[in-house]
Here is the input.
Amino acid sequence: MQTEVIPNKRLQLYCMDAQTHQHTFARDVADGLAAPQKWLPPKYFYDERGSQLYEQICTLPEYYPYRTEMEILSTYAAEIYAEIGHLALVEFGSGSATKTRHLLSAYEWAGRPFRYCPVDIAREVLWDTANRLLQEYSHIEIRAMHADFAGQPEVIQAFQLEKKAVAFLGSSLGNSTPEDSVRFLQRTAAIMGPEDVFLLGIDLKKSPAIMLPAYDDAQGVTAAFNLNVLHRINRELGGQFELQSFEHLALYNNERGCIEMHLRSRHAQRVPIVQIEQVVSFDKDETIHTESSYKYSVDEVRDMGYQANLVLRRTWFDARRSFLLALFRPL
Ligand code: AVI
Here is the structure.
């Protein structure tokens, strides 16, 4: 990763090379749409509009993962802070940091300087949030990183922190396969010191009757979020997708233990994408698989940790045990 650092006294911004970013998007779209089961990596949902739509999803009555994790953080922030100590807080996929604020407030109440290092793929959201946090917290010092950390948690080494708490909230790890998640945890554990901690927020398995509406809400916000990725391809790669020719589909894959989101072609069609020099053909009802959202049991989470040499030390749940906040320490 090439980085450019924009320093100021309380805020430093580390940026992934924009050129690299664009190139990767084109390659991923070309590869994904040429596969027998067409697919797109979910990280491309999060352009400015997609990030706004995700924020909106989080306010929906059906989308319980946000509410329940918020309940855990608001209820136990002081306890979690006491467990972590005053370590620099690194956060993968920080977004607008709404939930993290509960933890940041606990740091602030300690009355001494603390360091927050958010890492996100959505640059505008990262920058706006960092500037807002500077206004809200007088003791905060921010090092923010615009990066695609998905397959490379090592990007956080650029922060050069001696000791750290690494947080990955919002069940975002669930958007990777269990195999990739274990690899991500292994690589993260490999760059953790003996006193570092890893804080994971992850959605738990439950009845599909509760899970499914969270990904297929009555107002159609999730549908708009899903379809937005086609809009992004149109804008950034010269695609000619007609959005009304695709529909949002959410299903629970019982065997894999995940919610899948797809975009289903309403009729047979051919879609040119200028920048990747491809015309993509769709049969009627053929789908693009756009996201998997894996759900876990507590034992499966503990086991994933073990596979990565991380020991589950503390757990916090919401009142209905819908969501888990897990604290790991290196073995
Ligand atoms: C970010 N991630 C954990 C969300 C999820 O629940 O898988 C993304 C999302 N997709 C549809 N709604 C929300």
Observations:
- DSSP finds nine helices and 14 strands in the chain.
